Amino acid sequence: MEYSSSEDEELVGDFIDAEDNTGTENIDQGTGVMASQVHGDDPCTGSMPPVIGNELLIAADVVGKNDEPRMGMEFESDAAARAFYNAYALCFGFGIRVARSRSERRKGVEVLVMKRFVCLKEGHHKKKPVEPSNKKKRKRLSIRDGCPAMMEVVRRGPDKWVITKLVLEHTHVIVSADRAREVQLRRLSGKFQEHENQLQELRRNVFGDTNAQGLFNYFKKMQSENSSFFFSTQVDSKNCVSNAVWVDARARMAYTYFGDAVYFDTTYSRNENMLPFAAFTGVNHHGDTVVFGCVLILDRTESSYGWIFETWLTAMDNRLPFSFTTDEGKGIAAAVAKVFPQCFHRLCRWRILSRCKKRLTDVCTRFPGLHDELKRCVNGCDTVAVFDMFWGSILDKYGLRDDNWLQSLYEIRDKWVPAYLTSSFFAELSLTHRGETVSRFYRNNFSSRVSLNTFISRFDQYIDSLYASEAQKDITSFSPEQFPKTDTVLEKQARSIYTRAAFETFQLELVEAMQHYAVKVQDGSYMKYYVERGGDPPTRHIVFYNVAEKKAWCECCRFAFSAILCRHVLSVFLVAGVIMLPEPCITKRWTKKAKTGPELFGLNVGNGSGSADTVVSRYNDLVRDAIKCAEKGAVSAGAFRVAKEVLHKAFMEIRGLGEKLNKDALHSASSR
User: Fold this and answer.
1) Which ranges of 484-589 would DSSP assign to H, the alpha helix?
2) Burial class (CB in 10 A: 0-12, 13-18, 19+), 612
């Protein structure tokens, strides 16, 4: 006989029996790209068996030293087979359950002869007929999505069970081995229930009694309007939402142009009254904020951040940025190291500096100028030597040599001080001025008293305003409103190439260059210059210039940091008679043509499935072209009419081609 077991399900990472929930109503989890991720972290309280975590951790270590499951592998019993598969699941971060077993009557006794262990996401949810009732039932998510992973063992003797069927591949992203171990260690340490209570309280504050129904209604609405809308959710063992990531088509398009430097904005973590909302953001060619994706973070653990980063990276075709900026935090740092190992991980210096008054309350009260001096030290020093000297003088001046917080900041200075960040690009036009950010808007507009639906609606309006502002600035960038401050050809060329924001930064550097004087001190393929400026104290920078390759390097590394030439290099150009900006010194992302043509950056960490021959890649390419058409077509009524005509003509031609292909196929089939 055969039967399905719902009482025998296990969720690796929690090591407890998990309820099947087949009698509850399913809320579809959809995404245009990938299935939602099951997150086995929060067990159903009140049904906890004796802790067996130590045994499973030992079994996991045994699995790690041996082969993965394979056809023909033998076990002494079905329990041994189950323990092995359970430990294997622990190592690879997925849950298991017994889906089927079979017994035979032998000599008048029922004997178990087969067991099939499957991934917790195997199969699909089936609704049971429900009798009409006035009682409102809470909707739950279904974590099943048809995953085929399974292991079936059959009895071949009294103490011999053999694997006869085996599927190792999963159809969904599985959590890491570290994730499963993290959960079990947290349980063994006694912190599990505390974490569970905090998570449940946060859910009630965010969702109320709706259990995320409003969030899923929003996702479905957005995807019905645009199939390129991406969303994915992470749920716990009780099918409750733990985290969510969503990215619209415009964000994915903007990322192809301006995703070289990404900031993960977690302003909410500074105020417990704020909704747990975060955003992936960047900077466009006008120096303004652009949003690359949104996140709802309920479970703030290392593994959750890892899932968030991996999911968002999937939405962005697995293309890494050059730099990734976040707030401080061990969980975030560990997740970034795993998901973005090739990226430079920077800590947000503005967030660090904003904590100064809180961390140094007494000193700042007695010396109000301390905060401004620290900002000048961090933002104004362009070399390591100058920063170290300035930092030390501040510590001595205010008697802060023994301050633990400042000592800890100095120890990680290579993670946040610009003078030390000379090896990556961060898309900052100004070191001393921070532009309008999502975090500032968020702080001014939202709190926990605002419902999630209201928040999402307002934030969508805010994003719309960002795109409208960008479109308007695209138009004004081509008008000759920037007034020259010099009579150089360099400035005229820069005005014709750069957007207004980028040109104003370049113009400032050019004016400053005229206050410096460059002296050549060494000939060769790379000529060496000293660029000096008088003052108190006087400054000197070293610049190398290669005439043949038309490349220059300055020890301030301003160009690597912001992709705008520094005053020291421009001073050398003026002395060396360089009339026009060399092509290697112009970065397209700051120009008026930043959004023309494909702009691929960074390293693609995908598996190669995104080739030009796949339906998905062709679809994504067409979406990008359609968005370009929409951006240009929306700027005026005339452009709108032209765009509509062109799109309609293209659609009719494509439909006609499809009809012709269908007729040819029918004709070919009938002639056989």
Assistant:
1) 489-497, 500-513, 558-562, 567-576
2) exposed
Q: Are 526 and 516 in contact (CB under 8 A)?
A: no
The two tokens of residue 108 are 């008048």
Q: CA dist 282 to 20, 24, 251, 427, Å?
A: 42, 41, 10, 8
Q: Residues 223, 30: contact at Cβ < 8 Å?
A: yes
Cα 612 to chain centroid distance, Å, stands at: 24
Q: What is the end-to-end Cα distance of the chain in Å, rounded?
A: 48
pLDDT digits (tens, 9 = 90+) for 33-88: 333 333 333 323 233 333 334 444 444 454 544 568 989 999 999 988 998 888 88
pLDDT in tens, 396-435: 999 999 999 999 999 999 999 999 998 789 999 988 777 6
Q: Where are the domains of the chain?
A: 67-123+143-188, 197-347+425-476, 349-415, 489-590, 618-670
Q: Count how many residues are written for the chain.
A: 672
C-alpha–C-alpha distance, residues 409 and 359, integer Å: 12
Q: Nearest Cα to 96, choosing from 68, 57, 58, 122?
A: 122
- pTM of the full structure: 0.65
Burial class (CB in 10 A: 0-12, 13-18, 19+), 629: middle
